[in-house]
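hey
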């Protein structure tokens, strides 16, 4: 589970990978349950052999670690599926237009795409000012695609500091992804 592959925007292959990791996760949970019940069984009935407790403890620790790795991998795949399903990429500005009141449209910068529910996604966003800067005193929020809003790409210019922030964040994500899959870092 340590090595991850490059994920494409193909949701069919992600479904296969998610199903495989779910099987591994259920096996890890069964292993954890068996290790836990073995560690507490016969504890009060008889006196344990000196090395027995250490072996049971290490088996339990390994089962816990395997379960954590499987859960982390599943979270990674769910996020990759959400990114693949989304029509917009991260660090792109969008215009959210309410269907009922089109005059109340808001401009946002997509900061992250997160999985939502079994087969959905939502955007973690930061609101932008009219000049294209990030709002200083507002915290980020979420935009959930639904039938009450229309999400459109926005072509208005961004402030130079926001553009440099987006470029820096993209480079960091690429670097992180490359180290996750074992590629060497460029000079």
């Amino acid at each position: 589970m340590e090595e991850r592959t490059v994920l494409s925007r193909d949701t069919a292959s992600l479904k296969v990978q998610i199903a495989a990791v779910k099987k591994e996760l259920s096996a890890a949970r069964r292993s954890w349950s068996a290790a836990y019940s073995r560690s507490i069984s016969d504890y009060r009935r008889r006196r344990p052999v000196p090395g027995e407790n250490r072996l049971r403890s290490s088996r339990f620790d390994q089962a816990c670690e395997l379960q954590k790795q499987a859960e982390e991998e599943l979270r990674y795949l769910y996020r990759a599926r959400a990114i693949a399903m989304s029509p917009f990429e991260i660090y792109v500005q969008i215009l959210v237009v309410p269907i009922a009141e089109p005059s109340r449209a808001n401009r946002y910068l997509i900061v992250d795409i997160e999985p939502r529910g079994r087969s959905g996604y939502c955007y973690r966003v930061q609101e932008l000012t009219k000049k294209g800067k990030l709002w200083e005193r507002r915290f980020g929020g979420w935009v959930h695609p639904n039938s009450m809003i229309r999400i459109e790409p926005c072509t208005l210019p961004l402030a130079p500091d926001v553009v440099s922030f987006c470029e820096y964040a993209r480079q960091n994500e690429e670097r992180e992804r490359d180290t996750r899959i074992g590629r060497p870092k460029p000079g």
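Strands lie at 93-98, 106-116, 120-127, 141-143, 149-153. Helices lie at 11-40, 52-85, 160-180.
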